[in-house]
Amino acid sequence: MDKFSEYLRKIISGKVWGNCIAILIIVNTIVLGMETYLVIMNAYGDLLTSIDQTILYVFILELVFRFIAYRLDFLKDPWSIFDLCVVGIALIPAQDAFSALRAARALRALRLISVFPKLRKVIEGLVMAIPGICAIAGVMAIIICVFGLIASKLYGVSYPQWFGNLHLSVFSLFQIMTLEGWPDIVRTVMQEKPLAWIFFVTYILIATFSVLNLFIAVVVDAMQRNHAEDTQNEDEKIDVINKKLDLIVEKINKDKN
Known about the structure:
Blueprint: H1 2-12, H2 15-34, H3 38-70, H4 72-76, H5 78-89, H6 99-103, H7 111-115, H8 117-128, H9 130-155, H10 160-163, H11 166-177, H12 182-190, H13 196-256
Helix pairs in contact: 1-3, 2-3, 3-5, 8-13, 9-11, 9-13
């Protein structure tokens, strides 16, 4: 059984296996996309369903092989758990109560991330950035809340549709932060409040150009740290190999003497 597990592990970790799984994921994604067209479903619905089910069985078999190869280590790998959940969603019965989960079959396309190491590094970098992102999100929430209170006091009476209360002000300021339709709001407010541009320009400079750039900085820093850790681990492995080679060379020289 150990030899069989080692044999499976060599196959699963090979490029050929990974490329085949990636191709199946892409084909499955195309099939799921084609199922959204009524004309195609009327003509080839049975064929597309058969292909989808066949690929699903292949994915299940692949997970079984991976579990046999890695055993309990399979459950310790977050990416393996991710693959297990994505494939498991497709096994949920097609009932109205689970229609939303059945629609989540499209998540199978995300398995491409777990197949390619480069993509996994990007996601791992984003995960490492979560604490920093949460901190910046807290700062952003405070800024929007403060400016929302000010906007409600200044413009709530004249423009209740945008700043009538706190939650309307927060929503309007969030829209302005995305730079979507903000000139219309500002120009309308400036018709009655000519100096309103000072408030909105200040808010945009703080919320959009400053805080949002911090998000980018945090994510980039996390990815750089993740890459540095990988580089350090590789250097440590190389040092271990070099030390072993030095010991072998010393032993050979002693034997010759």
